[in-house]
Amino acid sequence: MKQKLVVLTGAGISAESGIRTFRDSDGLWEGYDVTEVASPEGWKRNPGLVLDFYNMRRKQALEALPNAAHTGLAELEQWFDVQIITQNIDDLHERGGSSNIIHLHGEIFKMRSVKSLSPSVEIKGDIRLGDLAEDGGQFRPDIVWFGEAVPMIEKAIAITRKADIFVVIGTSLVVYPAAGLIDIAPFHSPKFVIDKNIPAVKSVSNLVTIEKPATEGVKELAGILRALL
Fold first, then answer.
1. Global pTM value
2. For the stretch 135-150, what's the b/e string if a residue is b when 16 or more beta carbons lie within 10 angstroms of its beta carbon?
3. Which one is catalytic: 70, 93, 103, 105?
4. Does residue 70 carry a catalytic annotation?
């Protein structure tokens, strides 16, 4: 039976595909105040701005290509039972070949009614004001905004509790509840953190840090893990 390899990924893994990280040092995302484009309050104030912002993100995600970190994780499925838990809203893990993916913060290529969490509808083009769901509600991106519940977190917690190996790639571990998953992974399980700037994880047991970009770090990780087989 294959060991269960659970991988939590953040914006750093998509950055090498040209997708800007969500939270820059100036508090802006692509020049936008995140509170204006990624919160229920921002939506209420200016839904057109929010739709325009995510329409641009959708085009950007369509143009991006999976990088060696995405494909490297997919290749690990030959030896491990790999479960990806991603904070990213792009589909680069899917296009990179991974089979099992949980999107904690939603998906840029899905939309839903403002009146309901489900059902979601696939969307590759733009969402415009006046685009209505069957229940009469305005369509909005199927994205978890700041201040909203994270519907997939319980499933992610259950999977993390069963991890034989737990890996964090390209996340600053400051956005909760996702950041708390590393503390839920079994005490005895090996844990790896890959990032250009390793976040504060000194209290984590059985930890190996790889201070490299995601593409280089996943290659090194693969070598370490295969040597353990």
1. 0.93
2. eeebbbbbbbbeeeeb
3. 105
4. no
